Amino acid sequence: MHTFNYKVVWILGLPSAGKSTLARSLQVRIHEIGLGCLMLDGDELRAGLSKNLGFSASDREENIRRAAEIAHLSAKSGILSVAAFITPQEVHRNVAQFILKDVPVLWVWAKCSREVCYQRDVKGLYRKHANGHLSNLTGADGEFEDPPSSFLQIDTENNDIEDSTNLIWNQLFCLDKPGCERGGTFRQDKVLR
Ligand SMILES: Nc1ncnc2c1ncn2[C@@H]1O[C@H](COP(=O)(O)OS(=O)(=O)O)[C@@H](OP(=O)(O)O)[C@H]1O
Ligand SMILES: Nc1ncnc2c1ncn2[C@@H]1O[C@H](COP(=O)(O)OP(=O)(O)O)[C@@H](O)[C@H]1O
């Protein structure tokens, strides 16, 4: 019997900070122990359910509201969900927190400097912005407010994907239960800033 400490893992951060990578990596771990989870990723939601939404503050709020409502339904059905959204401002986080108030949520900040996000530029968005072809881009002309210290901070700039995933995994899982070997082998002596 495997028991999670949370019913939702909500990963937020700048574009290219590593949200989707960590969410996918977590999903692989969950599958490895024979469990399923619902993946909620900003790009995927915006390709369908949130197709009509853009990137104004109010559209982002509506996007987050929809994602949180799905995570809530999923939790009520006993299915863990892993959400990866920029969730840029406190107002957006408040919307999700209100909807998920009766659900245990692990709030994770994929923390990476703007400079490194710009270098990674996984989808070429920062370059598009620099060339004047994209506006309201979070981390460029779009605001991102650092979350409070109660959020689990994962420094995705100075740690690799494996260590970053381990840190989330160790919070998510009851470590005294079977099936936590990978989490258990996490090197506690390595400082994750
Ligand atoms: N202007 C602007 N600002 C931010 N992001 C943009 C923008 N335009 C397109 N994209 C793409 O949308 C992805 C982020 O969607 P989210 O649903 O996570 O955003 S939000 O939480 O509602 O703010 C984001 O994905 P990530 O790079 O994974 O964050 C981009 O692929
Ligand atoms: N510790 C880490 N966690 C997550 N991604 C990392 C890490 N270190 C390097 N990366 C790299 O950073 C990039 C993050 O891209 P992505 O996950 O698409 O970001 P986001 O979903 O936040 O836009 C990937 O190329 C990934 O391999």
UniProtKB/TrEMBL annotation:
GO terms for cellular component: cytoplasm. It catalyses: adenosine 5'-phosphosulfate + ATP = 3'-phosphoadenylyl sulfate + ADP + H(+). Residues 8-154 form the APS kinase domain. PANTHER family: SULFATE ADENYLYLTRANSFERASE (PTHR42700). GO terms for biological process: hydrogen sulfide biosynthetic process; sulfate assimilation via adenylyl sulfate reduction; sulfate assimilation, phosphoadenylyl sulfate reduction by phosphoadenylyl-sulfate reductase (thioredoxin). One of its GO terms (molecular function) is sulfate adenylyltransferase (ATP) activity. It is an enzyme of class 2 (transferase). InterPro entries: APS (IPR002891), APS_kinase_dom (IPR059117), P-loop_NTPase (IPR027417), Sulf_AdTrans/APS_kinase (IPR050512). It comes from the Bacteria. Pathway: Sulfur metabolism; hydrogen sulfide biosynthesis; sulfite from sulfate: step 2/3. Catalyzes the synthesis of activated sulfate. Keywords: ATP-binding, Kinase, Nucleotide-binding, Transferase. Belongs to the APS kinase family. The keyword Kinase applies. This is Adenylyl-sulfate kinase. Its EC number is 2.7.1.25.
